[in-house]
Each structure stands twice: as C-alpha cells, then as structure tokens.
Amino acid sequence: GPKHLCVDRQDNVLIADTENNRILKYFSGTSELKVIAGSNSPTAPIATEGGNLTPLQIRLERPHGVYVHKDGSIYIADSSHGLVLRQTGPAQMPQILFENDPEVAKSFLGG
Hints:
Layout: E1 2-7, E2 13-17, E3 22-26, E4 33-37, E5 63-68, E6 74-78, E7 83-87, E8 95-99, H1 102-108
Antiparallel strand pairs: 1-2, 2-3, 3-4, 5-6, 6-7, 7-8
C-alpha cells in the first residue's frame, strides 16, 4: 500500500505505492489515477543497469518516498535498491542522485 504522498503545484497527488513497486499520480479535479514510474515486470531493469529507459520501464522496489520540486522534477526514494532518483520528464531516464553502495560513496568522497 501507500507509504508516502505529496501534492504538486497543480494540486495533483503523487503516491509512493510501496507494496506495488510504483509511483502513482492522482490528477486533481478528475478521477484519473495513473502510474508514472515503475514497471510491473519483475525482470525489468533497475536504474543502475543503465540504458535509455523511461520511468515506466524501470523496476522500483518498495519506493518509500516521493517529492515534487517547484521545477516539476519528481524525486523518488527507491528503498530496496538503495537509490534516490530524479525524474525530469515522462519519457526521460531517471537520474541517480544517490546510491547506497560503499564503492559509489567512495568515488564521491575521492577515495
């Protein structure tokens, strides 16, 4: 079920649907609920596997948070993969902002 939600500038509600491994968007003033990130396929690649994938093609695992920046970028906490992602558009591959991996952390710290 849902673990976190936020509201964007247009009063749309974004929901981290943790148990279903996806991010949903409920459009204000309508009854439309749409998946905006997360593939239903257990074999879909995760963001660290690269490629030119859309947010609907990557596999999220237990996302626990979602936030919308004032510029419209969507931030996703992909908990079980240890990632924080930034989605800047519906057709663009989410950017990895943080990876909970000791080797990646070392490279950021110059180690």
